[in-house]
Amino acid sequence: MPQGSVLETITAEEARRVIDAAAAKATEIGQPMDIAVVDAGGNLKAHVRMDGANIGSITIAVNKAYTAIAFQCETADLQGVTRPDGPIFGLSDAHGGRLAVFPGGIPLVRDGSIMGAVGVSTGTIEQDQEVASAGAAAY
Amino acid sequence: MPQGSVLETITAEEARRVIDAAAAKATEIGQPMDIAVVDAGGNLKAHVRMDGANIGSITIAVNKAYTAIAFQCETADLQGVTRPDGPIFGLSDAHGGRLAVFPGGIPLVRDGSIMGAVGVSTGTIEQDQEVASAGAAAY
Amino acid sequence: MPQGSVLETITAEEARRVIDAAAAKATEIGQPMDIAVVDAGGNLKAHVRMDGANIGSITIAVNKAYTAIAFQCETADLQGVTRPDGPIFGLSDAHGGRLAVFPGGIPLVRDGSIMGAVGVSTGTIEQDQEVASAGAAAY
Amino acid sequence: MPQGSVLETITAEEARRVIDAAAAKATEIGQPMDIAVVDAGGNLKAHVRMDGANIGSITIAVNKAYTAIAFQCETADLQGVTRPDGPIFGLSDAHGGRLAVFPGGIPLVRDGSIMGAVGVSTGTIEQDQEVASAGAAAY
């Protein structure tokens, strides 16, 4: 057996704080959301589907958070470049169905390092982004 | 647009209560766990990976909860019957890698109906079952 | 854009050192191997398929390294408990085909934390384990 | 047992030479990259994720190299024809998420035969193409 455990980059307490802040914003704007937090390796740390949020958005929220880790950017930054006339059109098809290239995924940054990411889905992309931002601000 | 939203069978508040009760038991026995709650449709409602729990157990916990819904039983009930000399040996291969046929997945029952399920993974199967039971008892 | 980049847990130079040490051992015992190194998140950092190694072992080597991260142990430790009469028989079916439950995957540990893992495949399990150990010792 | 082993089309030494040349160019232009080399069967021969390169680009780099073998061309050649107004729009959806239809994947050619391919990802498509070209030139 190894003499240690896998290095953690985000705690369950931090993940809950991010989710609670995002959920509070979602409640404030009256739009239930799926909210997911992943660690720096893109692995799920916590998730909640608020009452009324989409079942289809479970995976979208997780994939938005994963994508923010995978490309070290907000998913919103991928939207223009992956459109039909963009330089990397087709990106979302090139990774086995795990990428989301529209707003709602935001890295969680500390001291210059991305330690995790939050992904939000169910509302409009403006709402998803606003709620994800509220979550990220609580990290 | 439809005149309604998808019927919910478990609330986010209930799911959190189940997770918190399971996490309290996990802390008590000194074994961090992945804990997942799904609704009656087998879709993820909430998940948390406690600090120190396995990354590989994210999927196992979700699949245990899914399996408890999928076959309307505790995952522990599937263990004997799916062994090489059992009547449904091979079951775990028959559903695209989504089934877990060992202890740790328990249905959440109310008034004779299964409303959701909890799945727990990372510890021994005895620990997983004990922690899942503590979660189910809080439903 | 975020003000930082994803936290790294293992460098490319370290990964190459591990691979080169493993490959040297593989050459010494006359058995070409697939050798993969993943980071603490289970994501591929480097891979080489030595001349003569199995094409099918590309994925097995990567999955062995992933499994060592996913369950915070050597893959050899999973062999007994997942056998037909073991407590978690069926584990290898419960994670979408990403788990390898036989020897050849070993965590890379530093200061009590698992920072990555090495996975080796193509030879016998004794050879795979020996070559992975040589790689891990060079970390 | 067969009287032989699977025909190899590219050696590990050649793959490393291609990767090292690509990595040197990546360092020169200040853009860390994922770099993958596959053989004539489209199977991974070697991969490295340079420090700072995208986790999401592991798969993209591998898929660019695979795509260059799969369609016997540079991935850049697929970009125009797969756009919404192109003759094979939809191609990237037609192969289970394994195709990349933008620059960065280049065949490795010897004596008129494609012996393998290199795929590069993380930078802009111009950077990916430049780094892949440097790798291919070293073959």
From TrEMBL, chains A, B, C, D:
**Coiled coil residues, start to end:** none
Entry-linked Gene3D superfamilies = Haem-degrading domain
Superkingdom of the source? Bacteria
Q: Which SUPFAM superfamilies match?
A: GlcG-like
Q: Where are the transmembrane segments?
A: none
Enumerate the InterPro entries for this protein. Answer: GlcG_carb_metab_protein (IPR052517), PduO/GlcC-like (IPR005624), PduO/GlcC-like_sf (IPR038084)
Question: By what name is this protein known?
Answer: Heme-binding protein
Recite the lineage of the species.
Bacteria, Bacillati, Actinomycetota, Actinomycetes, Micrococcales
